[in-house]
């Protein structure tokens, strides 16, 4: 889908919507929003525009202003399309739809355009209301994943050791080619790149911190702005180091990845020496995960395809975000009531942790009660 002149106009709208504080000394607006929230607003507006384009109700190429697209009639078309499309290309979950429309509402208001029509949709549309309700807890698909994880030791072990399993799989491809006395084929290089990148990401998530995928793909390992620090003579561990401006919750994240911790650091170092150089522009890239065709960070959609494919092959179909949900659920099950541990794991507020994982805590407490009931049989 081509948007003509729209992308730059969308970015301009979001810039105005997010730079809300004016510094009278420097006479400039201060950027006070995280990159992830900025990107969320971009995604929301682009989804609105692309849905409108797919509807055939307006010619996007002939539209000069974003405001002319964000009309009451057009918002009705978009919301109707979102609520009725539950299976085909372009579908959107109710939770995401509600979040997107809320962000668009804010962008419209701060750009001086009346968002009354969006307010009405957000308040009365059943599809959006179900999305609002879903935001109060874990999404249905994520909960289904966690329930399967909590009920299966095999799945739990697969989650926690996926980085090692995938590293071994990639190594086997490389060893096979070497044993045959030949270079890897183009197909083998593609496979190894994909599997190795997913293995390194899995190591970051399980042995470092379950950071969001957008943060992981933008980790910088070279230069003064590094957010991924490799081991040194003085620090025999790698470190994930994110500033508040880089995270969705606007909190600092500092997480070491220690050696001899289920091979987490070892897998990452293997990725750096054996896999990352297979990316054509890796020498020019400052990113831990470079793109395939240039020195920019690896694109989310590209990595998502790799991750889904190879996690499925590893025996645990999942999305990158499932690492956060899965690890958090396992931690609560093992330590009911310890919201402080979950707060540190996710770098999120206790309120958010309780909202998303309260159901796991209740189950764990129930099991504790059942053990006490069982002990009553000793009343002889």
Automatic annotation (TrEMBL):
<dbReference type="InterPro" id="IPR002104">
    <property type="entry name" value="Integrase_catalytic"/>
</dbReference>
<dbReference type="Pfam" id="PF00589">
    <property type="entry name" value="Phage_integrase"/>
</dbReference>
<dbReference type="InterPro" id="IPR011010">
    <property type="entry name" value="DNA_brk_join_enz"/>
</dbReference>
<protein>
    <submittedName>
        <fullName>Tyrosine-type recombinase/integrase</fullName>
    </submittedName>
</protein>
<dbReference type="InterPro" id="IPR013762">
    <property type="entry name" value="Integrase-like_cat_sf"/>
</dbReference>
<dbReference type="GO" id="GO:0003677">
    <property type="term" value="F:DNA binding"/>
</dbReference>
<dbReference type="GO" id="GO:0006310">
    <property type="term" value="P:DNA recombination"/>
</dbReference>
<feature type="domain" description="Tyr recombinase">
    <location>
        <begin position="237"/>
        <end position="334"/>
    </location>
</feature>
<keyword id="KW-0233">DNA recombination</keyword>
<dbReference type="GO" id="GO:0015074">
    <property type="term" value="P:DNA integration"/>
</dbReference>
């Amino acid at each position: 889908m081509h948007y003509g002149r729209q992308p730059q106009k969308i970015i301009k709208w979001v810039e105005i919507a997010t730079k809300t504080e004016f510094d009278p000394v420097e006479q400039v607006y201060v950027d006070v929003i995280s990159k992830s929230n900025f990107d969320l607003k971009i995604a929301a507006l682009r989804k609105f525009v692309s849905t409108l384009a797919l509807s055939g109700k307006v010619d996007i190429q002939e539209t000069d202003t974003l405001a002319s697209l964000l009309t009451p009639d057009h918002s009705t078309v978009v919301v109707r399309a979102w609520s009725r499309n539950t299976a085909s290309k372009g579908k959107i979950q109710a939770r995401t739809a509600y979040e997107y429309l809320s962000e668009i509402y804010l962008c419209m208001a701060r750009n001086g355009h009346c968002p009354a029509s969006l307010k009405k949709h957000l308040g009365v549309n059943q599809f959006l209301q179900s999305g609002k309700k879903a935001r109060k807890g874990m999404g249905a698909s994520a909960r289904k994943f966690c329930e399967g994880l909590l009920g299966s030791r095999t799945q739990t072990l697969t989650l926690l050791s996926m980085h090692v399993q995938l590293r071994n799989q990639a190594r086997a491809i490389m060893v096979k080619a070497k044993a045959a006395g030949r270079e890897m084929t183009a197909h083998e290089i593609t496979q190894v790149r994909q599997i190795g990148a997913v293995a390194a990401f899995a190591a970051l998530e399980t042995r470092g911190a379950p950071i969001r995928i957008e943060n992981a793909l933008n980790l910088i390992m070279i230069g003064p702005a590094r957010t991924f620090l490799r081991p040194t003579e003085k620090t025999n561990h790698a470190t994930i180091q994110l500033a508040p401006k880089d995270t969705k919750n606007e909190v600092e994240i500092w997480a070491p990845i220690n050696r001899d911790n289920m091979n987490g650091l070892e897998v990452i170092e293997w990725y750096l020496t054996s896999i990352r150089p297979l990316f054509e522009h890796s020498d020019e890239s400052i990113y831990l995960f470079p793109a395939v065709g240039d020195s920019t960070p690896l694109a989310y959609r590209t990595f998502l395809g790799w991750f889904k494919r190879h996690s499925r092959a590893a025996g645990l179909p999942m999305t990158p975000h499932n690492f956060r949900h899965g690890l958090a659920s396992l931690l609560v099950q093992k330590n009911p009531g310890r919201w402080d541990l979950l707060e540190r794991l996710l770098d999120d507020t206790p309120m958010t942790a309780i909202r998303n994982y309260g159901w796991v805590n209740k189950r764990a407490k129930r099991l504790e009660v059942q053990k006490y009931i069982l002990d009553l049989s000793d009343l002889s």
